[in-house]
TrEMBL record:
The gene is epsM. This is Acetyltransferase EpsM. Belongs to the transferase hexapeptide repeat family. Its EC number is 2.3.1.-. One of its GO terms (molecular function) is acyltransferase activity.
Length: 218
């Protein structure tokens, strides 16, 4: 089994983002490299929808550590990014490397080098001078303008717009369709609600929403 999987790729996660990842791999011509999917559990319907071999739960990864197989983080997030982050860090700790995915329809300025394991999904747009940390997800149609800085594990969800020079701290989530004004700082682990318009800095761990975005009182 180990021998068969050498130099292939394994997808981690079997939900909706995994299907988006599968289609990105197909568009890149990489789908034949995929040996299967590792996920905590997958229903029969999920297995049929994904159409890739189910290899088992996370524990099966141990036998492939150090074989050269590459992982792809296909755990999505609709708010806190902690599950994507924990999985990535645990697997890195086991010695795995993660593939960097750039959909052929994504546009990336020539001076941008995405961090290891980052994913730019279909029609994402990343302009000059942007720093992209490891395990960052820039989802479908998101726009990251010039000179933004995205810390590790950030998720810029579908259709969000970061104006120039926005700084997003580690593990923050910028919700679908949100707009962040130029030069704003978003703290580590913060969650920006879908459709929010962010015009003031956001502190670490805060949840903000609305227009103009305000912090939720817990
Ligand atoms: C902001 C967010 C994290 C809050 O999630 P939650 O804690 O489960 O919040 P709830 O759904 O319980 O809603 C709590 C209240 O906030 C309001 N609310 C929730 N999300 C909101 C948003 N994005 N903008 C404005 N108000 C929002 C709800 O209407 C509700 O108001 P009420 O108490 O007056 O009824 C979530 O709604 C959100 O926007 N997540 C981002 C989703 C996303 O980006 N998906 C992308 C996948 S690619």
């Amino acid at each position: 089994m180990v021998h068969e999987l050498q130099n292939g790729q394994i997808i981690l996660g079997g939900g909706g983002h995994a299907r988006v990842v599968r289609d990105t791999l197909r568009a890149l011509g990489w789908l034949a490299r995929v040996r299967g999917v590792v996920a905590l559990s997958m229903s029969e319907a999920e297995r049929v929808a994904l159409g890739l071999p189910y290899l088992g739960a996370d524990a099966v990864l141990e036998s492939w550590a150090g074989t050269g197989i590459e992982l792809i983080n296909a755990v999505g997030s609709v708010g806190a990014t902690i599950r994507r982050r924990e999985l990535y860090e645990r697997c890195r700790g086991m010695g795995f490397g993660f593939a960097t995915l750039i959909h052929p329809s994504a546009w990336l300025a020539g001076d941008v080098e995405p961090g290891a394991g980052s994913q730019l999904m279909a029609k994402a747009l990343v302009q000059s001078g942007v720093a992209v940390g490891e395990n960052v997800l820039i989802n479908s149609g998101a726009i990251v303008e010039h000179d933004c800085r995205l810390g590790a594990h950030v998720h810029v969800a579908s259709g969000a717009v970061l104006c120039g020079g926005v700084c997003v701290g580690e593990g923050a989530h910028v919700g679908a369709g949100a707009v962040v004004r130029q030069g704003i700082g978003i703290g580590a682990g913060a969650v920006i609600g879908a459709g929010a318009v962010v015009v003031r800095n956001v502190r670490d761990g805060a949840v903000v929403m609305g227009c103009p975005a305000g912090e939720r009182v817990r």
